[in-house]
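Posting this for the archive.
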Amino acid sequence: MPDICVVHLVRKKNGTELFRIFLESYLNHQAGTEHTLLIIYKGFSGKSDVAAYENLLEGIPHTCLFLSDIGFDLRPYFIAARKSESKYLCFLNSFCVILDDNWLLKLYTHIEKPGVGLVGATGSWGSVGPGPVTTQKTLPLWKKVLRPLAWRLVARYLKLYFSPFPNPHIRTNGFMISNDNMRNIRHGFIFAKMHAFRLESGKNSITNQIKKMGLNVILVGKDGLGFEENQWHLSNTFWTQTQSNLLIADNQTRRFEAADSPTRSFLENFAWGRAASMLRSNEPSGS
């Protein structure tokens, strides 16, 4: 059995088009290293309910895991880890699109290095918790529509579970981790979107738990280079510059790509703070 299992999540609510787009990218870009493919069918009633998806997969070796449509992406990932015998797991959510050849090899090259516990295709310093960026850019929008008491409760909750900016974390749209480390992540119930947010970017996020194990967290670009968290803003991957070094795209990277200039500036500031302004000031005119 190969050391690597690629786990792709398919939600019934999303229909077949997203899966077709992902599969096309999977077939068009060689992984670069041997692996198995596990498809998580989330929210389907059984084999008879996935005929259209299995037709698209015809001729592609894979296994299936059927799960109820409870919780968010991360809950199925932890279930898959418990059932898998592979040494490493690469998780790709429903919106992922692979952008380059040898994409899996590029991730694997870094995750197998001594002292590395987590690698991802995108990362951010952003936080929904208290801080200069969220306070000025995001939270006032909530304050306008929430009553003062409700606002105080929300602010207290965010302060309790989220660190202020900068808050480095690997985004869970596409990441790679050893099965042993994945099984050791404490995650609790993941039934609400906020639970998923907390596990991705909260004080007890997957990133922070890996760091508490004494392991490094690396962002990997299309160029195959690994970026330490203090260099993520220079990687030209997520919500910055042209995103031309992006290895695996998703709905949020496409959101940035399609956005107008003010929206791009807002998203860059959220993800990278003052570093975003410095990057923009160094861009050549007309870019």
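The longest strand covers residues 4-11. Residues 4-126+166-282 form a domain with the Spore Coat Polysaccharide Biosynthesis Protein SpsA; Chain A fold (CATH 3.90.550).
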